[in-house]
Amino acid sequence: MLVDSHAHLNFQAFNEDRSQVIARCKNAGLLVVNVGAAKATSQQAIDIADGQNFYASLGLHPIHVFDEEFEINNYQKLIDDNRGKVVAMGETGFDYFHLDMSFAKGAKSVAEIKDKQKKVFLQHLELAKKNNLAVIVHGRNGKDEPDAYQDIYDLLKTFAYTRGVVHCFGGNLSEAKQLVDLGFYIGITGIITFDKTGVLEEIVREVPLEHILIETDAPYLAPEPYRGKRNEPIYVKYVAEKIAQIKEKSVEDIIEITGDNARGLFNLS
Ligand SMILES: [Zn+2]
How many domains does the chain have? Predict the structure, then answer.
């Protein structure tokens, strides 16, 4: 079954035609996990969720940790009130690329930003563990701060809760392998259809299919042939097609195996 393991139909980019996009997902028989990035978009993800085609992940994105507090009681209540719809915590993690956003909100140093992101990441992990939910992890290296994925690995290893995915993976092969050894899934987006560096292709070739999830990260990162346009969940099939080429398997196999991975990880019906 085709699953888009990470999308943001809850974001503003879909305000004009959300119901049509949702209808296209349903017509395609797609399962979609909509991912929150703050309190408001987490609630929106729940509002879209039906426990059949659409599910929600709740979290405060690392680029937003200086915008608002991560209110742990509020998130616990959302989980309690929406069992069967909420399947994960996140996205959470380390983003060393958009440090400017935290400085603009009053952060004084890189150390302070990293510290705050770590504290919030740990709160997500605690809630995920307590409620038996998966965790959706975001990582992004900065030009002068290339250790986001290493820091993610270190924290996950120390915390020892390993039910989750590092989505839109942007690290190197050895970082991917470390995370897979911990038990994590590696999330592959439409970047795989246009990446010229060869790094992501090598990762897809080397990481066992049993540890790969496919995703759109819609509205961002539209795959070829829609690159540069607004992305939407049905385009996840282009990610599956590219992975099929790289793995030298049929698209049907890729859809079935990555679909089973996502359904197992998130406990989807
Ligand atoms: Zn995302």
Answer: 1
Distance 170 CA to ligand 1 centre (A): 13
Residue 80 has pLDDT above 90, yes or no: yes
Residue 8 alpha carbon to ligand 1 centre in Å:
7
CA of 136 from ligand 1 middle (Å) equals: 9
Structural domain including 26 reads: 3-266
In sequence order, what are the beta bridge partners of 86? 56
Tokens 């426990």 belong to 51
DSSP state of 267: T
Nearest to 78 by CA among 34, 47, 32: 47
Cα 35 to middle of ligand 1, angstroms: 6
Question: How far, in Å, from the CA of 5 to the mean position of ligand 1?
Answer: 10
pLDDT for the residue numbered 12: 98
Q: How far is the CA of 254 from the centre of ligand 1 (A)?
A: 22
User: How does pLDDT run across 94-153, given as a tens digit for each residue?
Assistant: 999 999 999 999 999 999 999 999 999 999 999 999 999 999 999 999 999 999 999 999
- In the chain, the percentage of residues whose pLDDT exceeds 90 is 100
d(CA 215, CA 234): 10
Distance 158 CA to ligand 1 centre (A): 24
CA 75 to chain centre: 18
Instruction: Tell me, yes or no, if the pTM score tops 0.90.
Output: yes
Domain of 143, CATH number, reads 3.20.20.140
